[in-house]
Amino acid sequence: MSIDIGGAQAKPAHIPDCPHQQIIDLYHQALPTGTRVRVWNGTRVKHLQARWREDAKRQDIEWWRRFFAYCAQSEFLTGQTQPANGRDPFVVSLDWLVSPQNFAKCIEGKYHRSAA
User: Fold this and answer.
1) At CA 108, angle to CA 106 and CA 114, rounded to 5?
2) Who's near 100: CB < 8 A, 6+ residues apart?
3) What is the pLDDT of residue 10?
4) Residues of the chain with pLDDT under 50
5) Are 100 and 43 in contact (CB under 8 A)?
6) CA 91 – CA 34 distance, rounded (Å)
């Protein structure tokens, strides 16, 4: 994964529609221990669409395949770390991954030993 640096990347004249279902399918394939998407509406739709639109390189289904494969290498995101204070292990969800703050943290490598 390449690191997103600050500002927006150049955008094509026409931004293709976000292929929500294809991205959901990729998420399920790459992160089978994550929460299954059963309802995809409202803020969830808006967040994924925003991540798709804000950078031209993300307007490619292969970019999302690589992103989810990268996330699948994280012990934290896949629930393989020992939680503190008797908590249950963290279970990732697609809406969690595409929220603005969490997406940036994932891209920056916060949940990996090395940056994306």
Assistant:
1) 95
2) 47, 50
3) 52
4) 1-7, 114-116
5) no
6) 6
| Burial class of residue 4 (count of CB atoms within 10 Å of its CB; 0-12, 13-18, 19+) | middle
pLDDT of residue 83: 82
pLDDT at 4: 45
Q: How far apart are CA 105 and CA 115, in angstroms?
A: 10
Amino acid at 91: V
Cβ neighbours for 103, distance < 8 A, ≥ 6 positions apart: 51, 97
* Per-residue CA distances from 94 to 7, 11, 30, 43, 78 (Å): 24, 24, 11, 12, 12
Residue ranges per domain, the chain? 20-77+89-107
